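Subgroup meeting minutes
Present: P.N., E.W., G.H.
Scribe: E.W.

1. P.N. recapped why we're keeping a running log of single-chain structure predictions: easier to compare across weeks, and new members can see raw inputs and outputs side by side.
2. G.H. added today's entry (460 aa).
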Amino acid sequence: MLRDRYESDKLFEQITAMMPKMDPILAKIDTYLEDEKLFALVREDLSKRRPMTLVTGRNSTPVEVIERMLVVKRLYRYSYEETERYVKDSLVLRQFCRIYLNPVPDDTTLIRQANLIQSETLEKFNARITELAQAAKVTQGRKLRTDGTVVESNIHAPSDNRQLADGVRVLARTVERAREASQRVGEALGETFTKLTRAAKYKARQIGETLRKRTDEAKEAGKTAYRELVEMTQKTVAQAKQALEHLATETHPKAKRLTKTLQTFIPRVEQVIQQTERRIFGEENVPAQEKLVSIFEAHTDIIVRGKEDHPVEYGHKVWLDEVDGGIVSHYRILDGNPGDSAQWLPSLQAHQRQFGHPPEQASADRGLYSAHNEQEAKRLGVERVILPKPGYRSAERKQHEQQDWFITGRKWHAGVEGRISVLKRAHSLGRCLNHGQSGFACWVGWGIIAGNLAVMGRTG
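Output recorded in log:
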């Protein structure tokens, strides 16, 4: 049964009275997390674990404890295991997480509960935090600066040979487990099943070493090796399909899990085979939107932003709207690699919804400039629109951009790069360690929430 909170512990209060006071920043964050609306958002998701979670079953880890431990995790860049260990060892963190002298939930419990919290809930959570920041006069929503960044997926540098080898490994392993779990699968495959994992791994490594030479002979040798690797992969896919046909008729839980795994990975591996044939044998330039860069994180986009140090990035473009006071009031994860100019109007509209009024000042980089974007901002009621024009500028435009308010606004806008840097360095927004698209969205949400709470703790 879902519990809301632990009862306060008098013995714990006596112990903590003899300890140094909680860090002022953490103490302020503690008061913000006492908000009942934040608590209700998390409770709503945790209550959906089982149909009767609210009325039957053994007592769960309290909602308040889960909420606060997840904040601690991203506030200090801990792993789930480190979160358990540090909270268990610290009286201050026990007090902050409202655990007192009760047992600290282990990392697996924390992971299971974290997976119940939806990305949409975290968007509402962040919106409520922005309201609390406004009430505490941390921000008034008068200024808006908007910019995008890329959060990378947790994948290795993509190459078709490694993905083919990964596909063979995953499918062969799953088929082997299916043979053990289902007599029908074992009888259907019989002695014909061949595990090609080691051979595929060796062939993929051979391809990588051969193609590094960049000669015509190496290119032909690489094609030959690729044909052999593709044949191994096709053979493994055929065995996986045969296993799936028989496994799908089984009803026990393990068979259902294996069926789901095969149904997920077979189409992905087939897509890698197809793009390999087009790219290597057909010498075709496969469009980025048609490429699969990871069979494990299939949602990953290919992002090209013209950055010298990162010419190509693999993950998702994330758009951030920051207001005065350093609060990221709104964020969104974009599909594919859309142009920046299309993000101007959604940012202004999100600000209007959040604060009930347009910003007095709104700024962005050159990539968002257009006469239409300036006009739309004026139409919505923005007094100072700061969009520097790229390329040729007329004398009138130069005079416009040399006004004091425009120059001051440009200097203030530069701070958004620092905010992005802090989110990546201090709150793990550089690389997502969660799995799947929903996991990616939750990773971004918790990172921004932790960043906002840290700002409010310092300035509220």
